[in-house]
Amino acid sequence: MEKIIDEKTQGNTLTLEPKTGNYRKLYIESYGCAMNFSDSEIVASILADQGYNTTNLLEDADLVLVNTCSIRDKAEQTVRKRLEKYNAVKRINPKMKVGVLGCMAERLKEKFLEEEKIVDLVVGPDAYKDIPNLLKEVEEGRDAVNVILSKEETYGDVQPVRLGGNGITAFVSITRGCDNMCTFCVVPFTRGRERSRDPQSILREIADLSERGYKEITLLGQNVDSYLWYGGGLKKDFKNASEMQRATATDFAKLLDMAASAFPKMRIRFSTSNPQDMHEEVLHVMAKHENICNHIHLPVQSGSTRILKEMNRQHTREEYIKLVDRIWEIIPGCSISQDMIVGFPTETEEDHKETLSLMEYVKYDFGYMYKYSERPGTMAARKMEDDVPEETKARRLTEIVDLQQKHSAYRTAEFLGKTVTVLIEKESKKNENEWSGRTEHNNVAVFPKENYKPGDFVKVKVTNCTTATLIGVAIGFSQSN
Ligand code: SAH
Ligand code: F3S
């Protein structure tokens, strides 16, 4: 799942094999980015040690946790609606406790308890280890809040429980927080300053996944290319690091190289790359290792240099194009996906046309496109008027979505007649006689099951396709991944 905001998984409840001896029931629901889903696995792990097994029946739960997203207003409204639903259930089961985790918890803090009477517990993204203490407070009848952001916390020492997964693909978080301060974005406020996780703990987690039969990992961070380990501490404090710390520091290229070399059978993806931090070194590491997928999620947000500047993205349109060209020089055929925002304050028809023309140049394989949503507290909200009318935003969004559809279809069709390696993840939703998996370029592929099974790397000859899916037949096991 490379998608950052996967609408299909929004609100998924997460369950795992019950731990014997545990008798309390946790219902945990996640919204937003992959990091939130990954964090919920950390929370479930912390609570498994407190006697909680997960359930996917809300009515059965002793504790309901919702891991929330603040990225757009709509994301917050979705959570508010879910709280109404929990409220209805709480009327039947008054002992049920409700906690709000994640970005909305961090953004609204104590205010949540005033605004939503149903909430007993508010926990920000860096305070999950405090949940056992907070639950004690709640049991004693007090409301409990911990929204302290940390300089150090990476949860590197918590072994996540893999919830609701397929046993084949997993997320491994490598950085937390973000320092980029894009003017539209709430993440630096809700997830705090950027810090990286100890590479040894990352490699241990991958080793554990590998032993348990996992075949693909996605290294996760708001901005993975900015990864920097120099013994702990904030990225922004690296300037004060000692000479020794500098000499032995691990950056993203090095981490990727270490992971790919140590686990040649494991397929490796990463997300997200901010163009301003993506260095050529990473591209060379990708080219060097067969097990690193040739796909880069490279959000650009706008094709207009003027708007990019207003957004505080640290590159121009031309620099972005240069980077894309370099990607294709070093990794021929590398797939590239985007995030795009339409209707950022002051965006003119000219700016919008620049976005369309940039898309035309890159012909992205995939894309996630949004209307600008003003977020309280961000620089854009403080300094700029949300002045693009709703109808204009809607129309521009339709235009870029339509164009992206065309490009996705074009990119998918490029694989017709070719043979691709597919990692089987699950049964196809549309046909129980077919497997569904993904190629290294992140295309979904379906093909008749024959004697293959989930977790197999299979060579598939592509005979047909839709806009987003490759359709083919298996022609044997693949030696590569
Ligand atoms: N670096 C992050 C970005 C997180 S937000 C990552 O790992 O993906 C994901 C996407 O949401 C952004 O790339 C942007 O396109 C979109 N987004 C962020 N803030 C937004 C806002 N205020 N309005 C609309 N879309 C927004
Ligand atoms: Fe947000 Fe920009 Fe960071 S989009 S997560 S501030 S890279």
From TrEMBL:
Binding residue positions for [4Fe-4S] cluster 1: C33, C69, C103
SUPFAM superfamilies listed in its UniProt record: Radical SAM enzymes
Cofactor(s) required, per the database record: [4Fe-4S] cluster
Residue ranges occupied by any Radical SAM core domain in the UniProt entry: 164-411
SMART domains: Elp3
Domain of life according to the entry: Bacteria
Any one GO molecular-function label of the UniProt entry: tRNA-2-methylthio-N(6)-dimethylallyladenosine(37) synthase activity
Catalytic activity: N(6)-dimethylallyladenosine(37) in tRNA + (sulfur carrier)-SH + AH2 + 2 S-adenosyl-L-methionine = 2-methylsulfanyl-N(6)-dimethylallyladenosine(37) in tRNA + (sulfur carrier)-H + 5'-deoxyadenosine + L-methionine + A + S-adenosyl-L-homocysteine + 2 H(+)
Note describing how the cofactor binds: Binds 2 [4Fe-4S] clusters. One cluster is coordinated with 3 cysteines and an exchangeable S-adenosyl-L-methionine.
Keyword vocabulary terms for this entry: 4Fe-4S, Cytoplasm, Iron, Iron-sulfur, Metal-binding, S-adenosyl-L-methionine, Transferase, tRNA processing
Domain called MTTase N-terminal: residue spans: 24-140
Compartments, record wording: Cytoplasm
Keyword Thylakoid: no
Segments forming domain TRAM: 413-476
Amino-acid positions noted as binding [4Fe-4S] cluster 2 in the UniProt annotation, renumbered to this chain: C178, C182, C185
NCBIfam families, A to Z: miaB-methiolase, MiaB/RimO family radical SAM methylthiotransferase
Subunit structure and binding partners: Monomer.
Family according to the record: Belongs to the methylthiotransferase family. MiaB subfamily.
Function: Catalyzes the methylthiolation of N6-(dimethylallyl)adenosine (i(6)A), leading to the formation of 2-methylthio-N6-(dimethylallyl)adenosine (ms(2)i(6)A) at position 37 in tRNAs that read codons beginning with uridine.
Protein name according to UniProt: tRNA-2-methylthio-N(6)-dimethylallyladenosine synthase
Organism: Aequorivita echinoideorum
